[in-house]
Each structure stands twice: as C-alpha cells, then as structure tokens.
Amino acid sequence: MSGINISELDKVYDSGTENVVAVKDLSVEIDHGEFLVLVGPSGCGKSTTLRCLAGLEDVTDGSIRFGDVDVTDRRASERDVAMVFQNYALYPHMTVRGNIGFGLKLSTKLTGDEIEQKVENVAEMLGISELLNEKPKSLSGGQQQRVALGRAIVREPSVFLMDEPLSNLDAKLRSDMRTELQELQADLDVTTVYVTHDQTEAMAMGDRIAVMDGGVLQQVGAPEDVYRSPVNQFVADFIGSPSINLFIADVDGATLRGPGGFTYELANPEPVAGHDRVSVGVRPEDITVVEAGQNTADVTVVEPMGNENFLYMEMAGHELTARVAPAVRPTEGTHVPFDFKEAALYLFNAETGDALKTKTDTVDSAVVGTTED
Amino acid sequence: MATSDETDDRVGQAYRRRLRGAVGRATRRSRRAARPLWDRFRFARQDLTAATPTLPRVAYIFIAPFFLLFSAFLAFPVFYTLYLSFFEYRGVGQGSLFWIDLGPLYLEIPQIAQLEFIGLGNYARLLSNELFWQSMFNTSYILVIQVPLMIGLALALALALNASFLRLKGVFRTAIALPVSANLVAYSTVFLLLFNEQLGFLNYALAGVGLGPVPWLTDAFWARNTIIAAVTWRWTGYNMIILLAGLQTIPQQLYEAAEIDGANRWEKFRYVTLPQLKPVFLFVIVLSTIGTFKLFAEPYVITGGGPTNSTITIVQYIYRQAFVNFNLGYASALTVVFVVIVSVFSVVQIKIGGED
C-alpha cells in the first residue's frame, strides 16, 4: 500500500549568518510494512530526516513520496502519518481518552461514539483500559509511552514515525517494550521509520537499519549485514556493543605490524595490497585468549557478567576489549597472549576509513534460523 | 586525603579505561589543578564551623527580624484597622495606654486615639451611603471593561511577539512593557494634558479629521473611558510580559503533536495554548482585578473623581473619608469591606480557573 521513497533529500538550516547542513543527499527506499531504523550518533541528522518525513520541517531539496503520492510539500496533517515523540508530547490537560481520541476528533468525520469505540479498542490492545480517565501526569513513564503509542495507532496511519520512543524508559521496561512494539508493528503491518541512537535497539528491532553520520547516509541493510560487512570504519565502530577494537597497523607485505610489537600474518594479503598503513578491526567476541602466542596484552579489568566475561586489556596504550567465556578469567594485571581468526578480521583504509576487508567467517547459528520457519 | 584519592583512583580506573576520548580526561585534569587551594579553603571553613559554639534555637534569632518588622508594620495595622472599624474617631489620643516606671527609665505607650465604640454603626452607615454605592459602581464599571480589554490586548501582543516570523522582538517587547516604569502621577498628568478638552492633543487631532471635541473629562461616560484608557496604557505591557513568559514555557512538541493530529492554527490555540496558559492567565486576571479594584492615582490626578463623582473609586472614597474628613472609623469599615470584596473576587476566580 504505502512504502516510502526518499530521494536526494537535503535539509539546510539557515540561521541568517551561517548555513547548517543537517541532511545531505539522502536517498532510501522503504518497502510497505517494513521496519526501518535510522541510527547514528547525536547530530547525525536522523531526527531531522524523521521530521522531514513527518512534515514538521520543510525540505530544502529532494522529494519524499508515500506510495505513489508526492508529499514533499504537504503539511503534516495531510500526510496520514502518526508520530511518537521521545517525550511522548501528551496533552497534559486532557485525559488518556482525550489524548488518544484527539486526532480522530480533529481530522475525521467519525461520530463521538465511533471515536469512543476506537479509543477503547486501542486501549484494550495496549492494556491501558483502566487508565482512560487519568491525566498524563498521574501515569508512569511506561504508561505514558503506551498512551503515546495508542494515539499513533488509533489513527490507522499509512506511516508510523517514532523518534527515540523508548529512550526515556528504564532498561528492563525498554527491552519489554521493544519486543511489544515489534509485535505490534508486525500485526498492524504499517511502514515504520524508527529513530534511535542506541545501536542495540537498532539491531534488535529493524528489518533494515540505516546508519547516518554527519547528515550523510553511510549504509542501509539488514542488521547482520551491517554488522558483518560495514562499508567503512564509522559503521563498524558504531554498530556492535562493546565496540569493535580498532588500531593502526603498518603493512609489510603480508604482515601487519601494530603497536606494542603486534604482528599478524595475513594468509590472503590481497586487501592490503598497495597500502602502507591500514586500520585493523577485531570484534570483541572474535578475540580469544590462548596458551601461547605472538601477540600479548595486559589485562586491566575483568568484568564477570555471569554468562560471559569482558576483558579490558591494554596493548602499548591501545585499549582492547575481549568478550570471552565465563571460564576464562585471567588475573588483573597479568600479561595474556591473544589471537583471532583472519576470517573475523576487518581492515579499513587508514585515511578514508573505507572497508578493505570485512568478516568472512560463517555463522554457526544458520541452522537455528532454518528450523524456526 | 591521599588515601581517599587512592580509592578514588582505583574506583575510577575501571571506568576511565572504558571512557574513550580525551574529553573526560581533560576535565578531570583541570579539576585536579584547582584542588589544593579549594581544599585548603574547605578545611578552614570546616575548622571554623567546629570551633564556633552552637547556640540553642539559633534559628529563631535569625528569623526574628522579619517577624518584628512584620508585626509592627503589617500585622498591627491590619488588626488595628479591623478594631477601628467598630469605633468613631474623636481625635488624637491623650494620656497613656500603658506605662512602666523603672526609676531612671520610664516606658510609656501613649493612647493612639480617642475612640467611641459604636458597634456596627460604621457598616450600617456605608450601606446607606449613596457615595459608597456610587464609588462601587464606578469601580465595577471600570473593572468590567478595563480588565478584559487589557488582558485581551496583552494576549494578542504576546502571541504576536511569540510568533517566529517577527523580527526585532526585543525592541517591541521593551517598548510595549516600558509604560509600567512610568511614575503614576507623572503619566496621569500626561494623560490629563492629552485629554484636555480645549488644549489637549487628542481633541486637536480629532478636529483635524473633522470630528467635534469630545468632553473627555467633563462627561461621566467619557471620563470613565479616559481612566480606562490610561490604566490600560500603563499595564498592558506588564501583563503581556507575563503572558509571553507563559507562552514560552509551552513545549514545542505539543504543537508538533497537534500538527500531526491535524490541528489548524485556531485548534492549536484552543487545545494547546489556552489550556497550557491557564495558570498564567489566572495569575494575570487575579492580579489585574485586584490592581484595578485598588485604582486611585489615575482618577485622583486626571479627573479628581469628577465630574460630580462619576469617576470616584472605592479607594479614592476611602482616602477622602480617612484623610480629608478624618472619619477614621468609617474609613476603616470601608477598608474592611473593600478587602472582603477583593478576597471574594480572587477566591472565586481561583476556584473557577484553578480546576484542572
């Protein structure tokens, strides 16, 4: 019914004295019913993009289409979108009932009874029926969040826009709501654009994720593709928690020489051919502590998580993080040898940050995925 | 302190290992640099505190000045006014109310006034006094027209100044709010001159466009309007500033949510601005009502209460009774009635407007 097509979107804020480019030449195609997550650090332009989609910001250049309809110059109220704000933006003087029904009251020809019926249905779906006569200020954060969702759902819009809707909730509630939101979106089958700065949320929720930095779209793809095959060092660094370990190494034929006597022989030196220096990336889960090896690091902190341990290590002033089995528990302050597979290695151009080589190791869990269907 | 620094360091270590980027480190370093001096000051302060003897109930000594001044200059006059309203004033007091003879020191509190108890006589008198009712009518008339007019105007100006497209906001804001700084008597005199029937600028300007002279000060209807114009000129900017501050506290996101919900300009005003502004609105209404009810200087200077008492206000009437006719008892009764009316007004407004 309604996918979204964003084409060469530019957004420039003109403050009179200087122009601030918030979004630059952004093009992305979102399928009907897809859950797309816009993710990036603060100020990367993800919220601006969402606000352009909502019609809350004018577009400087480019076009936005919902399905076959060009909505670039339409007002927010004419776009058939619903938005969930980070601070929920509930009307403080209205009851929950009033808040959810407000949009229907203003923009549809439904009778009062029909609106009432819809509001009650949505409230029941979200489990907030008993709160309908409360004012927002007497609700908890999680309940307010549900009301905000209800306000969006009741309108049956063609597009959902969500601006960090979970970031004001505590950790436990956030992961619960994450699942619930995904189920809800799948049931309603409404195209959704979701903005977050939290890469975990992006990985967990998105059908596809779009990583932005400095107003420029870096990469769009399925979460695992983005994780395994980032187009550049920024994406590799931003996606994944704890972050990927990155350091600069000199290229000597097939040998990489890094800080603190780090050396690594590449079986396939092709990606580094023609480069004097490269940026080496290794995911924390790919580092293994070994009995003996060429490369060593000082363990500074061990964080036992129960199901796994995080090792914080130092290699000639460079920090390394390793994610290891709970049984691996080296003493803090000791010197440990470590290793990783070449297939798990990422290499980036040291100057431009572009990816030269990404993960090529196979994923063991592929079997689990097939049994699920 | 060394030991505490060490623990601090050990705790901080794990955290800092993970804290990437130089920002955290830089702030920490600069805090370190200022530390010895700050510490020395803190130790000195702590030593001083420890060396100072503690007095029992010292807090009461600290708050005593307020209560002494409050009792002498506010509480006593208030209660004395209530007391006085049951008496007829006969003249300045003679003799003593209370004295203590301590040999060299002789302490005497003189009697304030010669009073004759007449019970509710003053209240009965005011109810049947035509001028009291006249002043009540005048004040109410001015109030009913002036307060809505002024607040409507202030709101319109505040909305205009809050709009994003307007340039030179600061200049307009200051210009509109400036009249509040005008001296009451000075600005009233200016209005008196502007509205003068023979020599005033206003009638001169009207004559210029072919309109006859308006009896601004000599006709009952026009004289009241002159007072209303003056008061509105002075206080609109003040109320506008308060309303503008209120407008600026309304979260922008509510307007955005309303926009997405399909609200037009009027609906945003009706469903977001007005309900959000309600507490500020109430404050402005209550304050303006009290302010206009207390109206005194403008009619005193501009019309003198005339023509034939058609602009005399309650406070002006009280003033005449108290300080021209020296009917202090009667004036006190008027004051009590005045305070009761203002209080009832305010309570009713807050009851109506304060409901959520």
What is the topological layout?
The complex is a heterodimer of chains A (373) and B (356).
Chain A lengths: L3 E11 L4 E12 L4 E5 L6 H9 L6 E6 L2 E2 L10 E4 L11 H12 L4 H15 L14 H13 L5 E5 L7 H18 L2 E6 L2 H7 L2 E6 L2 E6 L1 H6 L4 H6 L6 E8 L2 E3 L5 E3 L11 E6 L5 E2 L5 E10 L4 E7 L2 E7 L10 E5 L6 E4 L5 E3 L8 H7 L1
Chain B lengths: L1 H17 L4 H11 L1 H17 L6 H27 L2 E6 L3 E7 L2 E6 L2 E5 L3 H7 L2 H33 L6 H9 L6 H11 L6 H8 L11 H29 L3 H9 L4 H29 L3 H7 L10 H11 L3 H27 L2
Antiparallel strand pairs in B: 1-4, 2-3
Helix pairs in contact in B: 4-15, 5-15, 6-10, 6-12, 7-10, 8-13, 10-12, 10-13, 11-12, 12-15, 14-15
Strand content of chain A: 25-35%
Low-confidence stretches of chain A: 365-373
Q: What is the ordering of alpha helices and beta strands of chain A?
A: EEEHEEEHHHEHEHEEHHEEEEEEEEEEEH
Name the shape of chain A in a single word.
elongated
Mean pLDDT of chain B: 84
Structure report:
The complex is a heterodimer of chains A (373) and B (356). Chain A contains nine helices and 21 strands. Chain A has helices at residues 46-54, 96-107, 112-126, 141-153, 171-188, 199-205, 223-228, 233-238, 366-372; strands at 4-14, 19-30, 35-39, 61-66, 69-70, 81-84, 159-163, 191-196, 208-213, 216-221, 245-252, 255-257, 263-265, 277-282, 288-289, 295-304, 309-315, 318-324, 335-339, 346-349, 355-357. Mean pLDDT of chain A is 89; it is low at 365-373. Chain A is an alpha+beta fold. In chain A, a hairpin with a 2-residue loop joins strand 17 and strand 18 (318-324). In chain A, the strands form four sheets. Chain A has a six-stranded mixed beta sheet, sandwiched between helices. Chain A is elongated. Helix content of chain A is 25%, strand content 32%. Chain B has 356 residues and is mainly alpha-helical. Chain B has helices at 2-18, 23-33, 35-51, 58-84, 121-127, 130-162, 169-177, 184-194, 201-208, 220-248, 252-260, 265-293, 297-303, 314-324, 328-354, and strands spanning 87-92, 96-102, 105-110, 113-117. In chain B, the strands form two sheets. A two-stranded antiparallel sheet of chain B has the order 1-4. Chain B has a two-stranded antiparallel sheet with strand order 2-3. In chain B, a hairpin with a 2-residue loop joins strand 2 (96-102) and strand 3 (105-110). The model of chain B is unreliable at 1-25 (pLDDT under 50). Chain A binds chain B through residues 54-56, 75-77, 81-83, 85, 87, 89-94, 102-103, 106-107, 135, 151, 155, 300-301, 303, 312, 314, 319, and chain B through 13-14, 17-18, 20, 251, 253-254, 256-264, 267, 271-272, 275-276, 278, 356.
